[in-house]
Design brief:
Radius of gyration: 14 Å
Number of helices: 3
Helix content: 25-40%
Number of domains: 1
Order of helices and strands: HHEEEEEEH
Length: about 120
């Protein structure tokens, strides 16, 4: 495990296993993924950014689980799913989706299919 990733989760070590599962699935399913650890997020790139993980709170504190990660995806269309916490269209034809994950079971085929679509969309730019 990259020491930068461990440092990113320094105060949220209970969320690290979720990230590790997600990273493993992304790198197993998508070729040539580059991972960049930044102060506020861990970004996944092919030609361009297609997904990122953060620890931002996207719900009120009382409604947040104790341990979670936020996965953000960019797509060319809006996903219609109760799993999506926030969707925005920062510009025409570009939708940003935020999902809050607190259980390894949420890193499922549906999520990975969305990540793969985000990677394909990013690669087309």
């Amino acid at each position: 495990m990259n020491t930068d990733i461990i440092s990113f989760f320094d105060h949220h070590m209970d969320a690290l296993p979720l990230y590790q599962i997600l990273e493993q699935k992304i790198t197993a399913e998508i070729e040539n993924v580059q991972i960049k650890v930044q102060k506020s997020q861990i970004s996944f790139y092919n030609r361009h950014l297609f997904a990122c993980v953060s620890l931002k709170r996207i719900r009120k504190k009382k409604n947040c689980p104790a341990n979670y990660i936020v996965v953000t995806l960019g797509l060319d269309h809006r996903l219609d799913s109760p799993r999506i916490e926030i969707s925005t269209e920062p510009y025409p034809g570009r939708w940003t989706h935020h999902l809050l994950l607190s259980d390894a079971a949420e890193i499922d085929e549906e999520l990975i299919s969305w990540v793969k679509k985000a990677a394909a969309f990013s690669d087309r730019k």
